[in-house]
Design a protein that fits this description.
This protein is α+β, with helices and mostly antiparallel strands and about 150 residues long. The protein has a single domain, classed as Umud Fragment, subunit A. It contains 3 helices and 9 strands. The strands form 2 sheets. It has a 7-stranded antiparallel sheet. It is elongated. It is found in: Mitochondrion inner membrane. Pfam families: Peptidase_S26 (PF10502). Belongs to the peptidase S26 family. IMP2 subfamily. Keywords: Hydrolase, Membrane, Mitochondrion, Mitochondrion inner membrane, Protease, Signal, Transmembrane, Transmembrane helix. It is a single-pass membrane protein.
C-alpha cells in the first residue's frame, strides 16, 4: 500500500509539467474542415509549436494556427502568404485591388482557395492572434512526415 501511494504521488507531480509543456511549448491539435486540402485532411492531428512565436520566426509558406479575427473562440489554420510591409494582391472579393500589410500583421490563405475563409475575406491578421506554427502531422500514422510545402 505504501509503495502504491508513493507511485501515485510521483505520477501526480508530473501533471503540472505535462500541462505546462502542452499549453506553452508543443501541443497537438485536430484540423477541422477542408480549407488546407491537400496539405491537411479533415481530422488530421498536427503538432503545433507554441513557444517563441516572434515575427522574426515566421516566414512566407509557414502554416500557422491563429484565433479567428471574426470569432476569437475559433482556431484557424492557414499558410502565411505575406509579411508586414509587403504588398499583396487579394484573390477574391476583397474591397481593395492591393493591400499593404501593416506592421505586425500577416496575410494568410488556405491552400484550398474555394473552401477557405482567410485574409481575402477578413484582411491581414495581427500577429497577436497567432497561437503557434504547425510542425508536422502526427495522425493518422500513414501521414506522419507529410510534406507541408504547398506547390
Amino acid at each position: 500500500m505504501h509503495q502504491g501511494i508513493k507511485t501515485t504521488l510521483i505520477t501526480l507531480t508530473w501533471f503540472p509539467v505535462l500541462y505546462t509543456f502542452t499549453n506553452h511549448i508543443i501541443q497537438p491539435y485536430c484540423i477541422n474542415g477542408f480549407s488546407m486540402t491537400p496539405t491537411f485532411n479533415n481530422n488530421d492531428i498536427v503538432l503545433v509549436k507554441k513557444y517563441n512565436m516572434k515575427s522574426s520566426n515566421l516566414t512566407k509558406g509557414d502554416i500557422i494556427m491563429f484565433r479567428s479575427p471574426e470569432n476569437p473562440e475559433k482556431l484557424l489554420t492557414k499558410r502565411i502568404k505575406g509579411l508586414q510591409n509587403e504588398i499583396i494582391i487579394p484573390k477574391k472579393d476583397y474591397p481593395k485591388n492591393q493591400v499593404k500589410i501593416p506592421r505586425n500583421h500577416l496575410w494568410v490563405e488556405g491552400d484550398n482557395e474555394f473552401h477557405s475563409i482567410d485574409s481575402n475575406k477578413f484582411g491581414p491578421i495581427s500577429q497577436g492572434l497567432v497561437v503557434g506554427k504547425v510542425l508536422s502531422v502526427i495522425w493518422p500514422l500513414n501521414r506522419i512526415g507529410v510534406d507541408l510545402e504547398y506547390r
